[in-house]
């Protein structure tokens, strides 16, 4: 089948075009299935000011935690960050911005972004700090908050 060949031979080649201030997505769930070698290549390149979207932010010294150690991450969008002491320290010191979002909402933000849908409404998070500052609409008598897609 003819088409674009997206295969690459090296981690270096996979990250060509990675620059400061970019948004990157990192797969995995907890410490399982994380792209350890790609994370190591990001660290090696020394790019800074990254926004990282992931299920979690690793732990101290492992997973995305290694990019926190090297101060390459500016902002994290995640659904869980509970086991990373350095993450907590950087957030409390104002060195790192954190956006915590429910797991299903995070998945839908990514799916919507990939499908070209700029925003969607969800009941998840209504009445909690997650909803603060977000548009609220009522559908069939139930309140929903608007979430923006991640692109």
Automatic annotation (TrEMBL):
Name of the protein: CoA transferase subunit A
Domain of life: Bacteria
SUPFAM superfamilies assigned to the protein according to its UniProt record, in alphabetical order: NagB/RpiA/CoA transferase-like (SSF100950)
GO molecular function: CoA-transferase activity
PANTHER family, A to Z: ACETATE COA-TRANSFERASE SUBUNIT ALPHA, KETOACID-COENZYME A TRANSFERASE
Keywords: Transferase
Signal peptide (from-to): none
Protein's organism: Escherichia coli
Coiled-coil zones: none
Pfam family, one: CoA_trans
SMART domains registered for this protein in UniProt: CoA_trans
């Amino acid at each position: 089948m003819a088409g674009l060949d997206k295969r690459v031979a090296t981690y270096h080649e996979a990250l060509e075009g990675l620059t400061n201030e970019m948004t990157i997505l990192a797969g995995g769930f907890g410490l399982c299935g994380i792209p350890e070698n790609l994370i190591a290549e990001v660290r090696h390149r020394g790019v800074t000011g990254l926004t990282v979207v992931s299920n979690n932010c690793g732990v101290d010294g492992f997973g995305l935690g290694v990019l926190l150690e090297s101060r390459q991450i500016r902002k994290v969008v995640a659904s869980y960050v509970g086991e990373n002491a350095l993450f907590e320290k950087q957030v409390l010191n104002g060195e790192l911005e954190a956006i915590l979002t429910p797991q299903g909402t995070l998945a839908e933000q990514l799916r919507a972004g990939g499908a070209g849908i700029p925003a969607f409404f969800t009941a998840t998070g209504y009445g909690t700090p997650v909803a603060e500052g977000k548009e609220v609409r009522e559908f069939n008598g139930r309140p929903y908050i608007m979430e923006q897609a991640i692109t």
